[in-house]
Amino acid sequence: MNMIPPNTSMDAAKKQFLKEFGESYGYPNAPKHIDDLRATEFERLDGNVYLDHAGATLYSELQMEAIFRDLTTTVYGNPHTQSSSSLTSSNIVEDARHQVLKICNASPKEYKCIFTSGATAALKLVGEAFPWSNESTFMYTIENHNSVLGIREYALNKGAAALAIDFEETAQSDTFGSTKSSIKVSQHPIPKRSEARVSNRDPTGHTYNLFAFPTESNFSGMRFNLDLIDMIKEDSERILGGSQHSRGSWMVLLDAAKGCSTEPPDLSKHKADFIVISFYKLFGYPTGLGALIVGNEAAKLLKKTYFSGGTVAASIADIDFVKRREGVEESFEDGTLSFLNIASIRHGFNILNTLTTSAISRHTSSLARYTKNMLLALRHANGVEVCKIYGLHSLKAVYSGVGPVISFNLKRSDGSWVGHREVEKLASLSGIHLRTGCFCNPGACAKYLGLSHLDLISNIEAGHVCWDDYDILNGKPTGAVRVSFGYMSTFEDAWKFIDFVVRSFVLLPTNSINLNPLRSTESSHHLTSIVVYPIKSCSGFRVDTWPLSSTGRELIVI
Ligand SMILES: *Cc1c(COP(=O)(O)O)cnc(C)c1O
């Protein structure tokens, strides 16, 4: 197993990989072999190694041909118009809604599908229309996307409380001296806003709370156990230790934007109230289209403020009169639906249905597990570990597994961190596409990188914002490197990435040359500075030391 490149050829490594993961790798029941699928439907990758499927997965070239053929041979009119071309559009939209419900095993009798401009727009809609009152709580796991955290603004502005939670394992000794572990919920309340425009309670006097968590974290890949839905709905008092937040009814919002591509939530078993998804995360195209799947009962509670063409039955321009449309989709879909994009999604669903999401999950997991094992085994010549992976040790009661995502940081042989921007720049020179930073998930970032509020604030004060080059501040990483796999990822992608890490960052015994200026005083040449120019025509950065790889191909030291 510990055959680590570059001592191993790719072919030999693949044999080893298939021995261990052959049962999970590829799609034996699909018409095409994975290598065939990759060669014929993703020709444009042409040697590139694309490992940012958590950012956006890739559309297949056949999928795009099918969409093009569809749009160029069908007359699609505005679904709001009453004509045969609009009927075509309406039918296509209704079919698309069914496909969306089906992927989450949601019965059309219990759930509706509202199209939105993305997962973010779906989350915003829930935040805007949720029946907040001054007794409500918006509770969310620390590990959440910024687009979920933003719901907090609606809650706080309406006088509700916000509560971030995380889970810890605690060991307890019983009277017989044996220790049992149990899960503790750590609570991080966010104070109410004094200037909030307090919303009165629902006319029925009922308090509604909202609990939001991702099905899969886009940072660590951890999949949250969906039993949390029932646990919080039925037992919030015990879980929250009888705190003031446990009053009233709990509604649950699942952010399935990341998780849906490999493990869609099964809504026949786990009755969440709101579920958001995003189509470019599922099959690459179209962008700017997402959906809110909403339970019928939950939909009745939502109260939208804005009305528009699309959601209005009648309004009068110069008096305060509006009659809204009835029906769940009609009350929430503002304007004209993105009907051509909606018409395109069935060509993406065709792929998922052919391969099946369970096979995609197995396939991508095999690549992620292999890559993780390889990274964990890497050592510098002096024995120092090369890679720290985040989210490895998880609590079984809270997490049900892990998706095909690996977030990590690399260390030099002296134990200092390699900045994530440095990794990103070198990766891009090797044609490897990966993502670095906090991935819009500040809670996970702070938790895994061990950044305190003080660290975060001092980093912000030092001028660090998302996307900048301050990747290490006060000796600590400000973000991480993330690789993630998609249904068309192959063993070769994983291997090329590991090979890149070894070549660029692992100090093997014969790899190092000493660049210490003090050592070179005997020769007539003095090394006075090292400036690395990772990208042609862009400014370089000055470093004190720089490990060279055995090929030295990526670096020009001037
Ligand atoms: C991508 C992503 C989002 C945002 O989705 P958009 O469709 O781009 O708005 C939200 N949450 C998670 C977990 C994501 O991965």
Automatic annotation (TrEMBL):
Residues 49-164, 249-494 form the Aminotransferase class V domain. It comes from the Eukaryota. Residues 178-200 are annotated as: Disordered. It holds the Pfam family Aminotran_5. InterPro entries: Aminotrans_V_dom, PyrdxlP-dep_Trfase, PyrdxlP-dep_Trfase_major. This is Aminotransferase class V domain-containing protein. It comes from Lactuca saligna (Willowleaf lettuce).
